[in-house]
From TrEMBL:
GO terms for cellular component: membrane. It comes from the Eukaryota. Its main location: membrane. The keyword Membrane applies. This is Major facilitator superfamily domain containing 13A. The chain crosses the membrane at residues 16-38, 50-65, 107-133, 161-183, 189-209, 263-281, 301-320, 340-362, 461-479. It comes from Gasterosteus aculeatus aculeatus (three-spined stickleback).
Amino acid sequence: MGRRAWGCWLSVVSTAVLYGSLALFISILHNVFLLYYVETFVSIYKIDKLSFWVGEAVFLIWNSVNDPLFGWLSDRSFLTSPQSGPPITTPEVVLKRLKALSTNGPLFALSFLAFWVAWASPGLQFLLCLCLYDGFLTMVDLHHSALLADLAVCDADRTRLNFHCSVFSALGSLSVFLSYSFWDKEDFFSFRLFCVALAAFSILGFFLVSRSLRRRFQKEVRPRPDEAAALKELSVGHAPLAHTEKPVTIRQYLGQLSKHRNFMWFVSMNLVQVFHCHFNNNFFPLFLEHLLSDNITASTGSLLLGISYIAPHVNNLYFLTLCQRYGVYQVIRWLFMLKLGLSVAMLLAGADHIYLLCIFIASNRVFTEGTCKLLKLVISDLVDEDFVVNRRQQATSALLFGMVALLTKPGQTFAPLIGTWLLCVYTGYDVFQRETAGDAVVAVPEAAFGSGTPPLRLGCFHMVVFVPITCALLQLAAWSRFTLHGRKLQGIKALSLVGGNKEPLHNVWLCGW
């Protein structure tokens, strides 16, 4: 009876739904982590400033290095020529990814729990928890992202996979709203129980979903008797030549990647995108406080925060339908142009139109985060191009995702540094000293917005409009040089589909058996 029920479950739930549900088990934990880990160590564990900054500095280095490191460890066996040994089939690669997820997913959930119980000195616990958590998060995210490229080749299938990820990520954002009912710095016990419940749900989810997907793809790995005999017969005559060519070293791989022009232009654009996303995250509360707090209620401010948090996932569902019709490249280009147009319109309208400012601040974050959600599709296309151009035995999906992360993660550091510098330049306001200089340096005359506008408010307004304008111009310039779209992309996908021995997802993988 149990096996029959399990088989019925597998036949009803599609591979796309199972793949997307993995995003739920990641997001329910990661959203709570982002919101509370700093407040927990600062307000509850009373970490000192030096330990906090040392921990953040070490975390910055580890956060940048572990993506390509884990990607290389995962995919180094694929960096061989097509002639060096028996071919690795896509179902075998998928099984390897799923095995890694089934192991690292529960460990990721357990590392999440390590934040909420004091078990060492605050400084040591802060450092160890951050590195452990980010290490397992990177492993889970790399293999989950790599599956997007390994499971599908055509745009429609990848869009469908991403669509389900957006749905489940939006559901995962609800954990943030639930957490407000349990968060209490004076009585931390209820919040700990809430985190234990989230972690238990995530562990169970990773176990069941990875098991379901592995059972599906194990059927694909088993060769038929006639295929096995043919492979054995072919291997007899070519056995002496099985290892005539050496695997690609990391130095050779980096050399190949440096000549991959579309990869370099994409990284240039994505670096600006990462900077803009984190700039919005870092300074969103500051903009609410100095631009809107005198004109809106606290509940309206909380609503803006909530909308900006969950709307990118919901909005991405519409973006993905546009991607199916017009292509990912064109939709991303439109989003850059929309960001530029809205910023210029807001600059011309001025800082005194409060409701327009509310809409602009929220929409700017929604569209910027929405663009980030689409970039995995572009990286998956770059995986296909790298596979075809360099004639790899198997696409190195996790490694390429890791290299993108390595080259774009500095945007996370640039965002607060450049943002605080701009704030000081425009207003003389130093966020670290909490003092405002008497003579604020303002780049644009106050007369443009009325002589009664405070320098700090005017400086914040200039930041909130000029940063998106600058980012949009830089991104449009880099994106115009990106050529992996249209007929070229279709040609790459056709070669990748043949060379990678992949079957169309709508025939096999997305429909279930």
